[in-house]
Amino acid sequence: MAFRRAAPEVQTPHDTVVSDYRRHLNQLAMSIDQLHTAAHRTRANEVWTIDLQAALKATRIHYKRVEFLVAHLDPQATKDHLNGAPLLALERHAPSLSILEPEGLQVLDELIFSDDPFSEREVIQQHCKTLKSRFKAIHAFQNATYIADRNILEAIRFELVRIATLGLSGFDTPASAHALPEAQAAFATVHQATRAYYNWLPEDQKKLRQELEHRFEAGEIYLANHQDFDTFDRLEFTRTFLHPLYGLVLDLHLATGIETIDEVSNAQQPLNYRNRAWFDAQFFNPYYFAKLSRKDDREGVRALGKLLFFDPVLSKNLQRSCASCHNPQKGFTDGLAKSLAMDKKGTVDRNAPTILNAVFAKRFFHDLRSEELENQAEQVILNDQEFDMTVGKVIDRLQQSEEYQARFRKAFPQVKQAITRFTLMAALESYVLSLNSFNSPFDQYLRGETERIAPEIRQGFNVFMGKAACGTCHFPPTFAGLVPPDFEDTESEVLGVPAQADTSNLELDADLGRYANGRPKDHAHFYKNSFKTPTLRNIGLTAPYMHNGAYPDLQSVVDFYNRGGGAGMGLNIPNQTLPEDRLGLTPAEQSALVSFMESLTDTTGMTRVPAQLPVFENHPDWNNRPIGGSY
Predict the structure, then answer these.
(1) Cβ(157)–Cβ(250) below 8 Å
(2) How far apart are CA 417 and CA 423, in angstroms?
(3) Which of 47, 256, 287, 352 is 20 to 30 A from residue 463's alpha carbon, by CA?
(4) In angstroms, rounded to a whole number, what is the distance separating the alpha carbons of residues 489 and 79?
(5) CA neighbours closer than 13 Å in the CB half-sphere of residue 167
(6) 450 and 368 assigned to the same domain
């Protein structure tokens, strides 16, 4: 009797990727064990250091082969225990102030590649022990986690963003400068994971398969042939490989018929997953960051919000509007070191930041005291140095205008009472949400819409994302403190900003920033003099700079960073997060940085002011109020 041999099971793309992932996790576990052993081995200083540095580099390469999935499936554990920044942080969900000591691979990178790692031998050994223990738990969780095809394709796209922002900039490798070999490992891994899905493409998608393979293969060759950190052309690599691949992997995802996150979840996400580009206005989902819902953000609501923004009727003296401190002609700032206070009696405490792209943050104000954009407007209304009003008084005023009442009813037909706190804040928030600035000359070039860019802009971006390390705090594409690739955290930094730019009489600005913002959970010593990392988009329009307006132009700001911030210039700031080492930028590199930052200018379609303001029938004297306020 003949027996028919069973046909071998065909391995699915999912099986291939997950099998590789489990294998790489095992290799990372073994590499961490070897790192731990190397740290505890008895060797002479120099030999011990060389062996340990080699072990850490190997471990980090193994980490990069699992990063795309481990960081996507368990981002918090990855950040807290495996590869987070080497800085003190707050435990996110703790009910009170709870400080997390930094741990993981980045901490070890700083210690093991320091000038004298042997002197920190016991500290290094303890960190290696902690890493081994933490990864054991992470490894077990990852092995027990179900990974869907959707998760894999999402993770690939997120990793492409991560490579462009955190990888190539050296964020992950603060001391070893090992960024490019790690980027090579991460890029090769997502290439292999993507390749596994080629056979699931329909027959008519042959060109997509060829384009994906061409970009990945050419990208790997480019990385292999360009391994010098200071000369690597990050703009070329991002424009030619990473950015197009982000869109092509989406095309692959949709062509295979695999579900996308928006098909399986109603929860708002930071990104519009179906958008193909990350340097355009549709990349982010503003409704994730704002309290306003998509259904309440209509053209009529936005137009009403714009009127309110330019109307000084919101202020006690009827002379100030939101546009007083956020002038469209000045990049939605006021051009002052510190904004004028009510009735021109002195100034407020800080510089007026731009509100272009303001929605794309998880915390607001220089000191991060607010978690909601709408609270920003309310606090300005309540502040006795700004509008010196209450929301109730503003509503009472607006109700005295028949035109305002009609506009509110038309904008919010679903509510019984037209002018309320909700409708007022929704209108203002809707207008601010419309102020998206992602169409600068630089954006157009990176998206491939233009073919030429000035050499100094190219050099400036590469210095920004490389040697100068600007991109390790001002993350693309917002060039602010919104951390990629999840974009769920907004960072602040301690720069050591002086009270004034005069270096002959240098003293630290007395403003304590985040530490004194009134939020008990932020009252941690390492937040003294810490301020929100602002966007650099439109920075060419928003002088003077820093929270106190200490620096009059971009050249002086670049010089401040080149000197290592306040600590680098001699101030005693033990909690400064900006490295105090001098950057060693040449005059040409400093000039190129300025050229790049100026190329981020885009206020297209956002500077037009209302032609007139609504009339108040019973207050004819109010009807002469200037559009945008008088100061």
Answers:
(1) yes
(2) 9
(3) 352
(4) 11
(5) 28
(6) no
